[in-house]
């Protein structure tokens, strides 16, 4: 069965490009619907719990910036209809899985730096998304930047 609905997780950096190119080509070859998701993560408690600080304004700014970047991204990829570009708030793994379930996606595409060793311990969204995914996951290998 060819894939019918592909969800691409985008971090809205330049690294989206190879991931999107692969996704667009795959969607075209299987006639699949294409959706994207960017997750705005809750702001880290940079100052620790003891400092009384309202992060809501910073959080709103962060969300507004993501909205603007998502808008620019939308213009770069007219292959994805605007309503299929999702901007959500939360933990990437959880939100990507939730959206894939909700939208009935049968493939999630993420970028992967192919980290290993210590770097892997520090976290990889691709690795995170793979665990407990509600459908197939394709990790598009990204070039090392170092
Ligand atoms: P990372 O492991 O953070 O370097 O990210 C690898 C890949 O995970 C990216 O190429 C995206 O496909 C996906 N990703 C990372 N952060 C996000 C995010 N905030 N929202 C959606 N996808 C993300």
From TrEMBL:
Pfam families: Usp. Keywords: Cytoplasm. Its main location: cytoplasm. InterPro entries: Rossmann-like_a/b/a_fold, Universal_stress_UspA, UspA. It is found in: Cytoplasm. The keyword Nucleotide-binding does not apply. GO terms for cellular component: cytoplasm. Residues 3-141 form the UspA domain. It comes from the Bacteria. The keyword Cytoplasm applies. SUPFAM superfamilies: Adenine nucleotide alpha hydrolases-like. Belongs to the universal stress protein A family. Homodimer. This is Universal stress protein. It comes from Pseudomonas knackmussii (strain DSM 6978 / CCUG 54928 / LMG 23759 / B13).
């Amino acid at each position: 069965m060819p894939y019918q609905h592909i969800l691409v997780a985008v971090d809205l950096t330049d690294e989206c490009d190879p991931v999107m190119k692969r996704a667009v080509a795959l969607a075209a070859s299987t006639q699949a619907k294409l959706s994207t998701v960017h997750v705005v993560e809750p702001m880290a408690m940079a100052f620790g719990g003891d400092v009384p600080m309202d992060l809501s304004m910073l959080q709103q700014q962060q969300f507004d910036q993501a909205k603007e970047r998502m808008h620019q991204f939308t213009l770069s990829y007219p292959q994805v209809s605007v309503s299929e570009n999702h901007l959500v708030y939360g933990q990437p793994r959880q939100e990507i899985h939730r959206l894939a379930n909700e939208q009935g996606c049968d493939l999630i595409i993420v970028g992967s730096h192919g980290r290993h060793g210590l770097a892997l311990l520090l976290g990889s969204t691709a690795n995170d998304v793979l665990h407990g995914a509600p459908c197939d996951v394709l990790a598009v290998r990204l070039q090392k930047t170092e």
